[in-house]
Amino acid sequence: MNKSAKGFVREVSLPQIHDPRGDLTFVEGGNHIPFEIRRVYYLYNVPVDSERGGHAHRELEQVVFALSGSFRMRIDDGTTKSDYWLRDPRKGLYISKMIWREMDAFSQGAVCMVLASHRYDEADYFRNYDDFRAEVESHQA
Which residues are catalytic? Predict the structure, then answer.
């Protein structure tokens, strides 16, 4: 687990039910996910050379899954940077508030699903990295 003064990142594992007809995985907000789910969205048809993300959130928490294929999550808490590869649909990455995230290296046919703690609110975003770093530094002083 990667911790910072404002946030942290950790792996989330979901249950898997094996069956000869195929496996089943389910997710329950407040149980498998450390918040009630307010929004679900997914990315697909992402060109393999594209980058997504490039922002942080003031309050929003997320869990990100690769439902199909793989991609890299580049995580930055303002002090430490880490890379996580998502490729198992049973394993997600919990990202708390005040964590900068970037996504790249999408495999062909990758599908990324995001479970979010809040509805969309543009005011919750840091879209400029320098503004994000300034906010992190102001809370470390």
Answer: 55
Q: Are strands 52-57 and 100-104 parallel, antiparallel or unpaired?
A: antiparallel
Q: Which residue has the tokens 């195929």?
A: 22
Instruction: Quote the radius of gyration of the chain (alpha carbons, Å).
Output: 15
- Tokens encoding 82: 């880490």
Is the CB of residue 115 less than 8 Å from the CB of residue 62? yes
Cβ atoms of 59 and 118 closer than 8 Å: yes
Residues of the chain falling short of pLDDT 50: 1-6
Distance CA 132, CA 137 (A): 9
Tokens of residue 7, six digits: 């946030």
> Residue 11 is encoded by which pair of tokens?
């792996």
Q: Strand, helix or coil at 46?
A: coil
Nearest-angstrom CA–CA distance, 56 and 102: 9
pLDDT score for 140:
80
Q: Where are the alpha helices (DSSP H) in 54-109?
A: none
Indicate the domain borders of the chain.
2-140
Extract the tokens encoding 6. 């404002």
Single-letter amino acid code for the residue at 20: P
Q: Give the homologous superfamily in CATH for domain 2-140.
A: Jelly Rolls (2.60.120.10)
